[in-house]
Structures are given as C-alpha cells and as structure tokens.
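Recall the central idea of this unit: under ordinary conditions, the amino acid sequence of a chain determines the structure it adopts. In this exercise we apply that idea directly, starting from the sequence alone.
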Amino acid sequence: MTEYGTGCLVRSLAGHDKGTYYIIVREDARYVYLADGRTKTAAKPKRKKRKHVQFSHKWDEALAAQFADGVLERRYNESRRPHPLNRDIREGIKEERELLSFFRDRAEYIIDTSDLKPMELRRKLEEYFNGDKKAEFQLIIESFGYKRGVPFEADMVFDMRFSPNPFYEAELRGLSGRDKPVRDFIEADETYESFINQTEAMLRELIPAFVKQGKRRLLVAFGCTGGRHRSVCAAEEMHKRLKDSYSSRLIHRDAGIEAADIQERTGGKGES
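Accordingly, the structure predicted from this sequence is:
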C-alpha cells in the first residue's frame, strides 16, 4: 500500500465524485481533507475517509490546468467581476488560456500564483529579475492644493491649513513656500514646528515597517488651499530632513499653476 499525506495527489474511489482528482491539504488518523481548486478550496476542503481515496502518480497539463482554473474561477467569484472574454467564467478562462498559449510556450519563467500572497509574489519576481540587487525604497514627498484635489496615489496626506495663510499677506502672496520670507512667516507659528518634528519622527518609525512589509514606494503629500505656500514649505522641509536617509523625490504639483492663478486674480499686484 502506498503511503500518502498532505500535498499528495489522490483520486476519489467512492461517492458522487468518484474519479475526481484532489490534493490533500490536511489529514488526521481517519480522514483526509481535499481541495480541487474549484468547488473545494484549501480554506473549505472536502472531508473523505482515507479508504475512499487512492494515491495517484498522474499529473499532466490538463490536470494542472484544472486546479489552476479553479483558483481563477474562485477569484472572479470573490471579486464579483465578469471575465472580459466571456460571461461564463469557466469558458472565459479557457479562451484566455488559448489566447495566451503562444506566450506561455515561449516564457522563460512560469509562476503559479495559486497559493501566493501579493508580498510573496513580489519577492519571487524580485528573485527572478533583480538577482542579488535589492529593490531600493523610494520616498516621494509632494505638495498640492486642495482646490485641485488630493493626489489619488498618496499613501499619507497631511493638511497644512491649520497654519496661518501667507496668501493674505500682500507682500507674501506672490512668493512661494521656497522663499525665505514665506518660510519665516510659517515657521513663526509654534504649532508648525511641533507638527514637522512629530511628522518626521512618525515617518522615521513607519518607513522601516512599510519596507519590511514589502512596500517599495511611499508617497507623502502635504496640502494647503492653493498648493503654493504652506504645503510647499512643509514638503521642502520634510524632504531636507529625510533625503540623506532615503532615496527621496520632491514634487510641487500645483505651485506653478497657483502662481499663474494668483497673478490673474490680482492683475499682477500679488507679485513682489
């Protein structure tokens, strides 16, 4: 009698599923728990008596596709999205396999993602394509104006509108957060200094944790009304503090647009 256990391929010998192939996902003294990737999953396997299954050496492309198709079908059902090629998910997956067979036959690497979590897939891709070179973490610091919307790709957003607005100071209106008079005005608010210090401390604590979880990019956004004064000042300061510790990129999304807008609204009187 052939010994078999978790991870083995078996065939059902009895019941309405007689002849069906399964993978053993766990076992005990009396029962084996089976998954076929379609109707029975690893999370909710089928229980069957050991005497009612038979170890099998059979494993071919058709059988491998059966299990993989079951995983894909489950993913579509869980997401409640139709297959783009066919309203029938199984038929859609079949058509997709046929369309992609040309590329599959010529692929250097084929990765089965059935049991991979997103972070595990990332690591596997890095192993294949990065070799020994570790992917570098990138920190992006961006300023923006709420009047033009929050950057949809931002991971963290900080609202600088708690600070007095330089726009209402005639001599500062035409300047930006990169100019010393504007920085001096903003930094005179003691709340600003406390905010910057605490935000820096938080980022220094969280970034290593994000990296540990496999995140390779973090976009930190600072916003104010127009995106030219307070947000620019804060983004510049945070970039200066963190650029020596991380690969940091600085973006001022709306500073230029807001400058033109201010000039148009004030007829050039806001320029100094």
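Residues 138-266 form one domain.
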